[in-house]
UniProtKB/TrEMBL annotation:
Reaction equations catalysed: a (3S)-3-hydroxyacyl-CoA = a (2E)-enoyl-CoA + H2O; a 4-saturated-(3S)-3-hydroxyacyl-CoA = a (3E)-enoyl-CoA + H2O
Recorded family membership: Belongs to the enoyl-CoA hydratase/isomerase family.
ATP-binding is among the record's keywords: no
Keywords: Fatty acid metabolism, Lipid metabolism
PANTHER family, per database record: EG:BACN32G11.4 PROTEIN (PTHR43459:SF1), ENOYL-COA HYDRATASE (PTHR43459)
Protein name: Enoyl-CoA hydratase-related protein
Function: Could possibly oxidize fatty acids using specific components.
Length: 266
C-alpha cells in the first residue's frame, strides 16, 4: 500500500507541514513523506516561513521499516538507497533556513530521533520516548545522529546514549536539550502548529540569518564567529525586515513583518 500522497505534505498559513511517518508499517519512516518533503523543501519560496514535522499514527516515527529491510533481496543496496533518500531529506531540511518545529508524540526512535535532533523547537507529550534504536538491530546511526547528538549532549554522553540504546523519557529529553517543552498529549500538534504559524509570520529574514550563524559556528573560532556576527547584524540593519523592526521599536508599535516578506530574499 502506498501512503496517501495528499496527506503527507501541505501548506497552511505559511507553514509547510510534512508527515515523516504514517500508521503504515508501524509508524516507520515514510519514503513517500521523504520524497514529497524533499520536493516541497527544495521548491519552497518566500511564502513558506516555517516547517512543521509530524507523525501520523501512534508515534512520531518509530524508525525505519525493519520488516522491509528483512524482505529486501539485497539488504545492503536497499539500506544504502533508504539512507541516501533520508539524508537528502535532512539536507533539504537544513538548507531551507526557516524555523523547523516538531510535534513529537509516542516513540521517536532511530530515524525518528534523528529527525527530532534537526528541529529548532520540539514539543513532546508526557509519554514521549526517544532511543537511538540502531544497536538493537545491529546497525549504526543515520540521519546525521552521530553529528547532531554530540553537539547537543557532548561526545561521551552521545556515545553512551547510542551504544547503550538508552530509552529517554520526555523529561530527560528536555533536560538533555533534545526536546524543548512538554505539553499535554492532546495539545502537541495544536501547540506546535501555533508556534510554527507565529514564526512563519515573524522576522523570517532574521531567522534565516540566525540559522546560518548557528550552523556555521561549528567550523569557526570565537573570533571568526564574532566577525561573522558583525557582518550579519550590519547587513540585517538595511534589509526591509531590519528597518521595520527598528522603526517599530522607536515608534512603540508592533512591527509589521509582512512589509519585508519576500523583499529580503531578492
Amino acid at each position: 500500500m502506498t501512503d496517501n500522497l495528499q496527506s503527507l505534505v501541505r501548506v497552511e498559513d505559511g507553514v509547510l507541514r510534512i508527515a515523516v511517518a504514517t500508521a503504515e508499517h508501524g509508524t516507520s519512516l515514510s519514503p513517500d513523506g521523504m520524497r514529497q518533503g524533499i520536493d516541497a523543501l527544495r521548491s519552497a519560496g518566500p511564502e513558506i516561513g516555517a516547517v512543521l514535522l509530524v507523525g501520523e499514527g501512534a508515534n512520531f516515527c518509530a524508525g525505519g521499516n525493519v520488516r522491509g529491510f528483512a524482505a529486501a533481496e539485497d539488504r545492503s543496496a536497499h539500506l544504502f538507497d533508504i539512507a541516501n533518500l533520508f539524508h537528502d531529506f535532512v539536507r533539504a531540511l537544513d538548507a531551507i533556513a526557516v524555523p523547523v518545529v516538531a510535534a513529537v508524540h509516542g516513540w521517536a526512535a532511530g530515524a525518528g530521533m534523528s529527525i527530532v535532533l534537526h528541529a529548532d523547537i520540539a514539543f513532546a507529550g508526557p509519554g514521549t520516548k526517544m532511543r537511538a534504536a540502531y544497536p538493537s538491530i545491529g546497525f549504526t546511526p543515520d540521519g546525521g545522529m552521530s553529528w547532531t547528538l554530540p553537539r547537543v549532549v557532548g561526545l561521551a554522553r552521545a556515545r553512551e546514549l547510542i551504544i547503550t540504546d538508552a530509552v529517554i523519557s520526555a523529561e530527560e529529553g528536555v533536560r538533555l536539550g533534545l526536546l524543548s517543552r512538554i505539553v499535554g498529549d492532546d495539545e502537541i500538534q495544536g501547540e506546535a502548529l501555533r508556534i510554527a504559524r507565529t514564526l512563519a509570520h515573524g522576522p523570517t529574514a532574521a531567522y534565516a540569518g540566525i540559522h546560518r550563524l548557528v550552523n556555521d559556528s561549528v567550523h569557526r573560532s570565537l573570533s571568526e564567529q564574532m566577525d561573522a556576527e558583525a557582518a550579519s547584524i550590519s547587513a540585517a540593519s538595511t534589509t526591509p525586515t531590519g528597518i521595520e523592526g527598528v522603526n517599530a521599536f522607536v515608534e512603540k508599535r508592533r512591527p509589521d513583518w509582512s512589509l519585508g516578506a519576500g523583499a529580503d530574499q531578492q
